[in-house]
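Students often ask what a 'structure token' actually looks like in practice. Rather than answer in the abstract, let us consider Kynureninase, a protein of 404 residues. Its sequence is given first.
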Amino acid sequence: MTQTSLDAAALDAADPLAAHRDRFVGAAGPVVYLDGNSLGRPLRSTAARMTAFVEEEWGGRLIRGWDERWFEQPLTLGDRLAEVALGAGPGQTAVGDSTTVLLYKMVRAAVAARPGRREIVVDRDNFPTDRYVVEGVARECGLTVRWLDVDPDGGMTTDDLAAVLGPDTALVVVSHVAYKSGYLADVAALTRLAHDAGAWILVDLCHSTGAVPVALDAWEVDVAVGCTYKYLNGGPGAPAFGYVAARHLADGTFAQPVQGWMGAADSFTMGPSYAPATGIRRLLSGTPPIVGMLGLADMVELVAEAGIEAVRAKSVALTEYAIALVDRDLPDVRLASPRDPAVRGGHVTLAHPRMREVTAVLWERDVIPDFRMPDGLRLGLSPLSTSFAEVAEGVAAIRTALDG
Ligand SMILES: Cc1ncc(COP(=O)(O)O)c(C=O)c1O
Ligand SMILES: Nc1c(O)cccc1C(=O)C[C@H](N)C(=O)O
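Now compare that with the structural description of the same chain:
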């Protein structure tokens, strides 16, 4: 980057998405928020939508709401999310549960679909919940976890995966964007490798959905999950989403273990035993969290309006800017994320032995990054709500804290 391109005000003035920032609560300051990949800011429209929901839809329609809209809402919102941000056709995505619970359902379903195969591949740097679920299912089903060591400042490459795949592999579990390093995995290539070995792939999209374009259908991914409280701004505890490829729904291979009435063939027949619904409804278990879908629905429409490619362009510009400032002002800090934007998602991690204490100091000063073990300060740059000025203030605050 040239010197002039390090001018935050000029970059904000030239940002075609800058006007969207006004739509978020608090984006005008004073908090410098650099943790949108743990919890996105709320949209202003969400407050009005929540009030209207309580007064009109819930308060007015009462139980009729289920017949009128809520029963289908996990699937209609899933379809819209799929269209806007997942590169997936209709009928394959449902909203509900937490990411962790959906991971459990997906891992169980995937290993059941590959009978006789004994191994689940997952990398040691994947998010804890992914690793813990895999460990739990392996124990429950008498399988083995094949742990993959990957570059901690990167993530799972095709070479890493090719080295461990074999006739015993049932499933590969990978994050599209690694939660610590921000490494952006080549999911299309990893999927081809897994399929060549006869395995399924499960992709965790928590850190990419809403910031990085995803093409689940084109990549031929088998199953995927993701959360909606990061770049989809659904709010704390907003429900996750799950995707199951149409081919696995059509041939009935997909069977998840939490058999509940909302995923049954006819919920209101209330019959003596469970028969799964056809299609993606079979991913559901109990009553879906309709209230939790309100904020997310607003943000999906904003991503549609902005366009996911434009969102990605801003995301790349923000992370490039952060790295350029780090190179100039923080020579004592190690970039623990890929330098190449083609293999980097929406966040950047900076390593230094004092980052835990630096993060605590920054939080006291209303500058909010995240700390991730062992020594990483993570800048999560939410493309529609983060300004270049915030990035500049954040990096300057790190310098001050390190010097203090
Ligand atoms: C990659 C990844 N998977 C899963 C989760 C979380 O799962 P849950 O939404 O169930 O807390 C996170 C972050 O919280 C994450 O970064
Ligand atoms: N999901 C979170 C939560 O419920 C509380 C605090 C933080 C989080 C996070 O999102 C952590 C995040 N997935 C991460 O990558 O670190």
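One point worth highlighting: Residues 182 and 194 are 22 Å apart (CA to CA). Ask yourself how you might have guessed this from the sequence alone, and why that guess would often be unreliable.
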